[in-house]
Amino acid sequence: MSEVITIGEPLVLFGAAGADELDKELSEVKHFEKYLAGAEVNVCVGLSRLGHSVEYITKLGEDPFGIFIKRNLKKENIGTDYICSTNDYPTGFQLKSKVSKGDPKIFYFRKNSAAAHFDINDLDNLDLKGVKCAYISGIFPALSESTRKSVYKLLNSIKENNIPIIFDPNLRPQLWASREEMVKTINDLAFKCDYVMPGIGEGLILTGSNKKEEIADFYLKKGVKFVIIKLGEKGAFVKSKEGSYLVEGFKVDKVVDTVGAGDGFAAGFISGLLEELSMRDSIRRGNAIGALAVMSPGDNDGYPSKKELIEFMKL
């Protein structure tokens, strides 16, 4: 089995391409470029490029998008042994605008997707031998009742095997029936994990506070070991029962696309844990990949190899 295991929904991304599409509404964009996307996919890509083995659990449609995703996962050396397929539902995809500043607009085509119909029984034959950590995102449990049950089942199996769990809330309000359901479910999942990594804005939604210390304490009181709050260009704030500190971010010459920065951070951080770096150095590595991510157009195009990461961190 791979070092890292995750579950999620990979997507085909059509990103607005070319100078003529800059700052246009998605309905007006004529030219798109196709990419592999999805938060968990991005983390897998980042880890694989750094030399770590990752296994991805999901369900794809038996269609051109599903073929594209599986082929590209294999190109990135991501494990596909636990990817199921179906003829009954399509593979999800999304559109992304191109902007001169701020976050691009995203529109999803994932309702009733193949991944949303992931069957909890598909986890029955899961082999966790050799797995060193698990990455769980708050996106997959938002897709349907069956995906939510599957995440809980996977979490329980992971905990029974004493495998550390890294959790990124990755809030997607448009995928939930209500804000209240989202907050309750995400927090319930977070309380079961060892490392929780919200963005500062997500922290406000999930805890009612925009103060770093209070957000961290909210989770620490529930048994979470480390809370890492992502602060964008400012870096990341870390707190555990032993204390707290800020790890500064890296300077970015030009922001091209902000999507994928948080996932890049997760990949860098997890790679540090796997290589037994200190918490501070692991988070610094996460900050570095987050910075590299925003300087490239695709969700994960800017993720570096180990050599490229080391060179960037020397700057």
Automatic annotation (TrEMBL):
Keywords (A to Z) from UniProt: ATP-binding, Kinase, Nucleotide-binding, Transferase
SUPFAM superfamilies: Ribokinase-like
Entries under InterPro entries matching the protein: Carboh/pur_kinase_PfkB_CS, PfkB_Carbo_kinase, PfkB_dom, Ribokinase-like
Domain of life: Bacteria
Signal sequence interval, chain numbering: none
Annotated Carbohydrate kinase PfkB domain residues: 21-304
UniProt xrefs under PROSITE patterns: PFKB_KINASES_2
Keyword Kinase applies: yes
GO MF term (any one): kinase activity
Cross-referenced PANTHER family: HEXOKINASE FAMILY MEMBER, PSEUDOURIDINE KINASE-RELATED
Family per similarity comment: Belongs to the carbohydrate kinase PfkB family.
Protein name in UniProt: Sugar kinase
Native source organism of the sequence: Clostridium aromativorans
